[in-house]
Amino acid sequence: MAIDILVWALVDALLDVPANERIDHDAEHEEDLAQTRLMRNTTLARELFYPSASTTNLPHSLPLEKYAGSYWHPAYKELVVEYEDEILKLRIRRSSLDYEVKIYHVTGEYFFCIGYPVWNPEDPLYAPAEFKIDAGGQVAEFGVLFEPAMSPDKIWFTRVKS
Question: How far apart, in whole angstroms, are the C-alpha atoms of residue 68 and residue 81?
Answer without folding.
Answer: 5
